[in-house]
Amino acid sequence: MGHVTGPVLVFDGDCAFCTRCADVARRLLPADVQVVPWQSTDLAAAGVSAARAQTEVLWFDRDGAVSGGAPAVARALRAAGLPWSVPGVVLSVPPVRWVARIAYRLVAANRHRLPGGTASCRVPPPGAG
Asked: Per residue in 78-90, pLDDT tens?
């Protein structure tokens, strides 16, 4: 894909769990939204590190704004339209937003243990990558 221009959902293509989630996103999101692995994007041009992309899903808006983790999921859900935009809005409102961030971190840290996950899904430890 090269240079990232939104709307784009960027995931870890080496992670089987993330790839399965991306397959669902492709079915839900409008045709103008790209769903691509970070390994085939020019993250540096977008000002995003590979280390960040290894640890959280990324959402690139049309204006170039980047969200990661739970906020990225919320933005993708809002972009999917009804009925998916409703949980996307709910995930963006305190206190749900705070809980969503914690839940996202727990899922990301344990994605190798989830259905479809493999050892390659393990999030690298901080500073390794």
From this structure: 999 999 999 999 9
